[in-house]
Design brief:
- The chain has a five-stranded mixed barrel with strand order 1-2-3-5-4. It has a three-stranded antiparallel beta sheet with strand order 7-6-8.
- By secondary structure, it is α+β, with helices and mostly antiparallel strands.
- The relative contact order is 0.12.
- It is about 35% helix and about 25% strand.
- It starts with a strand and ends in a 6-residue tail after the last helix.
- Helix 1 runs antiparallel to helix 2 (about 110-125), helix 3 packs parallel to helix 5 and helix 4 packs across helix 5.
Amino acid sequence: MNGSAVYLQPAFVLQHRPYRETSVLLDVFTRDFGVMSMLAKGVRKEKSKIAGLLLPFSALRLSFVDKNELKILSQVEYVDSYPLERLALYCGFYVNELVQIFVHKYDPQPEIFSCYERCLSDLLLGERIEQTLRYFELDLLQEAGYAVAMDSEANGNPIMTGQRYNFLTDFGMVADNEGLIGGETLSILAARAPLEGRALLEAKLLFRKMLDGHLQGRQLKSRDVLAKIIKYL
């Protein structure tokens, strides 16, 4: 793809930061090329018409020149926006950080892209925010290749209600009377059913353990921020 041009690629800005006097460096999540770094030249000039478009949580179509690892933005088309407010906004930044970590650069992940769009739509509604995060975490882990069966143990035995389970990284679910999650919650997750009460708490503990196992000690900045204001993460 070196030296070629890509036109009107569906994308979301995950992160942006100033570059030199008038430009911006972007981390963008594209539907067909995965996460990539992009330079938007001159967009911080006073008369720029596109600076206000290159923000997180706006659905865009981006055209760019692919000369090297750093792509050069050439055109922006606005499609839609997800004006997240307050809690949902902080949760959106958490979702963005997860995408940057679990989607490798230039690795096409159209299914994760669809999950991301759906997550933003659900966050925009402002309802069941915690459930939205849990199911996005589940989708992300599965589509990124870290799938764990929610309806069976690692040894193939079916999950049983009334039994508790633990999660072992790179292995799966195992029966454990002192486990962090009950069979009832795993059954709810397997069915993508509504999460309420104890199931929400157990799902949070499970996915935190699953994510942390793959983060290998890496700290999530957005989680630290959210921990100060909510108990969702």
